[in-house]
Amino acid sequence: MAAASTTIKVAPLPNWSERIGALKNIPPVLRFVWDAAPGIVVSNLSFRVAAALIPLSILAVTRFIVDSVTNHQMRHVPLSHMFWWMVLLEFVLAGVATFMARIIEFCDTTLADRFTRHISLKLMTHAAKLDLMSYEDPVFYDKLERARAQGVDRVQMLQVGGRLIQEVITTVSLAAAIFIFSKLLLLGLIICVVPAFLGETHFGFMNYSLSYRQTAGRRELDYLRVLGGAKESAKELKLFGLAPFLMGRYSELADELYHQTKDLSKRRLTFGSLLALLGLVGYYGSYAYVIYGAVIGTISVGVMVYLSGAIAAASANIQAVFTSFSGITNQALFMTDLLEFFAVKPKISSKASAMPAPKPIRTGFEFKNVSFKYPGSSRIVLKNVNFKLGPTERIAIVGENGQGKTTLVKLLTRLYDPTEGQILLDGKDLRDYDLESLWKEIGVIFQDFMRYEMTAAENIAVGRIEDLDNQFRIRAAANKSLAEHTIRRLPNGFDQVLGCRFEGGVDLSGGEWQKIALARAYLRDAQLLILDEPTAALDARSEHEVFQRFAELTKGKMSLLISHRFSTVRMADRVLVLADGEIAEEGKHDQLMKSGGQYAEMFELQAANYR
């Protein structure tokens, strides 16, 4: 249980230079906002500017009305012919303010939706460009998790930014009115709210620091939540009695995060309240000064009402400006995670002068002294591997688990680059070819293939997404993989949603899913077909049928087959035996059996299980 707490790493509290420096994040974020919905941005700002000037306008009209009534009653001065028009104007201004507040709220909501859509698509697009090695790095996952969270959670930054602009304009207009009567009055108001601003800023940055170091812990909480309610884990949870263990681990980690957050909130409540009192002192001191001026007759009642309203509104708006600015700097600090994610560049990419993949492939692939180890690991997975794969050749790769079979496929498809050596295609280094063009010529089905919670047709179409609307090709691929019989038994055939995530979905057995995955490879109709344990979930009869069909369909084509079942590799033109990251044996099935080496030993061990 104690191990759960070790996922929470400590991050130093950002210093003031880093905090102020975070403001550099605002321009690129504003660019995201503008790109998301330029028309809504312009409308929002226009209405906010207009709304910001209304409070001072209402106070000016109120001053006129109060002074007119006072002079009429005390001095019997006739009411101005504009008096009732000014009363009507005050009503109109109040109505316009209410109406504009609704419009601004509508603009905020619409802009937030457009921004979330825009930034989510941008995140997905950028994530799709990154290397496979990124997804195998937990540090990257933390960065991705924070970027996803900030891309959505920072939506409030839009409202805070718009509100700040409106508050600044309102504050400047009210401050100008106060300044005309007394410079010291305005200065006193500002001085009294500065401590509260500094306190809010400090605690905002502390909140960022806490959120940063809790990233891994919150990611573990999400994992435990999924684990405790996923179909894939339900059987073992019940049979192994894992629920109490998972709940205990979740509870301990959640409590730790809760207490950290609670401690910060308590400190913010205590010190924030004390600092806020200074703002009240400034307001009521200024208010008393204005009342005193009215009592001794240095200002009129209308001016008193005018200044009292301006002081109250200015005090509230000055605090609001400082709070909003503090919020902006806090939000800007959070946006560092989003911008850092966008700054991550793939290490494997196409050269500027990259060539298109050859069509047709003439001499095939060649591994020349290829060695490989995963980033951050000292273990060499493949060592000095040499072999060729001709354009019409079928090669099978066998070996025990962990010998580098799937890694070899990742290198062949250039999901990784070799640590040492070269992989050639038609005599040229694989790195000289355009990646997108290369991938279009390769069809791969990995043993951990995806099960898309989409229709059966869409599940097949992902193999060649441009054929999504080509029902003829999709059905032909299903027929080749022997998935068509399974699909036709579904209630809605090819339009049936697969999986249990959505209402009306139908789940398939492991073998049925595998046939769907194989259909993707056939739909791709690539020059090189790679099957990594393609029949692991099939029974013996289905396996025989699939490989009989595979032998027919790949005749005269380049294909690479990885399998633990030696009965299926006999159809290959050549077999490579991987052991300790090296090619230990190579040849046809009959040759390898006669040599009596490792292949023959593994074959006999497996065959003995069926006797």
How would you describe this structure to a colleague?
The chain is α/β, with parallel strands linked by helices and 611 residues long. Among the domains are: 14-343, Up-down Bundle (ABC transporter transmembrane region fold); 450-525, no CATH class. The protein has 20 helices and ten strands. The chain has helices at residues 16-21, 26-36, 38-74, 83-129, 138-153, 156-181, 183-213, 215-227, 231-239, 243-295, 301-343, 405-412, 435-440, 456-461, 471-480, 484-488, 510-524, 540-553, 589-595, 598-608, and strands spanning 365-372, 382-389, 394-398, 420-425, 428-429, 442-445, 528-532, 558-562, 574-579, 582-587. Strands 6-7-8-3-9-10 form a six-stranded mixed β-sheet, with helices on both faces. Strands 2-1-4-5 form a four-stranded antiparallel β-sheet, with helices on one face. Helix 3 packs antiparallel against helix 4 (83-129), helix 5 runs antiparallel to helix 11 and helix 10 (243-295) packs antiparallel against helix 11 (301-343). The longest helix has 53 residues, at 243-295. It is elongated and about 125 Å long. Mean pLDDT is 80; it is low at 1-13.
